[in-house]
Amino acid sequence: MTEKPEYNISVDVLKSCAAFAVVVLHCAAEVMDDSCTTSINWWIANFFNASVRWSVPIFVMISGALLLDSRGDENCIRFFSKRVRRLLVPVLFWTCFYYFFRYSHGGLTVKQAIGGMLRGTPFYHLWYLYMIPGLYLFTPALRVYVAHSSSRERMFLIILIFTISIFQDIISTFIYSGQPTLFTMFIRYIGYYLCGYQLSKDDFHLIKKTYSGFIIFACALLSALGTGVLVHFFNLSSHNGGFYFYSNFNPVIILMSLCIYHFLTDVRLTGADKIRHYAPLTLGIYALHPFVLNRLGRWDFFLTHFTGTYFVIPVKAILTFFICGVVVKGLIRLPYVRQIVI
């Protein structure tokens, strides 16, 4: 999402689909927040939410696939200078933008502002922009590792990292609620980062693509049912483990993310040429969409009344994605402003 790779339609399709999935996720989350947990609306939104939890892992895997291939003409200094310039401006701008937004909608103290930055969460979705620099920091060392390791050795490390991440996630969710900070939040994502590189290799095959659709649907269903069980039968809230099956480090979400990435890589999609046009806009869409969702909040009654509850999430997601795309495409045309969205 923060890289500008050589043209590759598979990468473009992955980025565009992941950006749309993020919008769907947050549309579904809004419906869940406004619905009784025993209502059909909550369960519909729960399934939508569970079905798109692969979005951020896909972004991380794309970065791994693009950046972990060694490049002889790019030393550490050149690598870091390029990424610092590309990341610093959008991180600073969107942090200030959403801090102003929070301040104008209920107030924001200096302590809350500093705490939000240290946790990497100035706003609920900006954690990704605070997490990705940690992966970039270790990229030169990881490049050396992947260049001198075998496929089996890389798979062992990936499995080891995911295993540790799964146990850490269980402990932090149900036993000790310690929050990661901007200095540690990236560590668990190294598994996805390496997976992106590994799955991009022509000699590596995860699973037959004919089975991927079934596995993806089964994972989405398991995630939704697991969330329902934790919320209804164990009376857990989002703050004490009720949404554990949404976690990027739940085994079900890990498997679904890997299958989505594998399935969409080199897949021949009708309309792929149109989908790929959103790829350069994904950073801007990701950063802007919560603001647009908030502004569209007053339309919820209209959408529910005229399209029916079942269609509120996809209709609102498509509308939000389209509006963000138009705005970001306009901003890209401005010489200095474009740095905040691309």
From TrEMBL:
Pfam families: Acyl_transf_3. One of its GO terms (cellular component) is plasma membrane. It is found in: Cell membrane. Belongs to the acyltransferase 3 family. One of its GO terms (biological process) is enterobacterial common antigen biosynthetic process. Keywords: Cell membrane, Membrane, Transmembrane, Transmembrane helix. Residues 9-327 form the Acyltransferase domain. It comes from Desulfonema ishimotonii. The chain crosses the membrane at residues 12-32, 52-72, 84-101, 127-146, 155-176, 211-231, 243-263, 313-332. It is a multi-pass membrane protein. One of its GO terms (molecular function) is O-acetyltransferase activity. InterPro entries: Acyl_transf_3_dom. The keyword Coiled coil does not apply. This is Membrane protein.
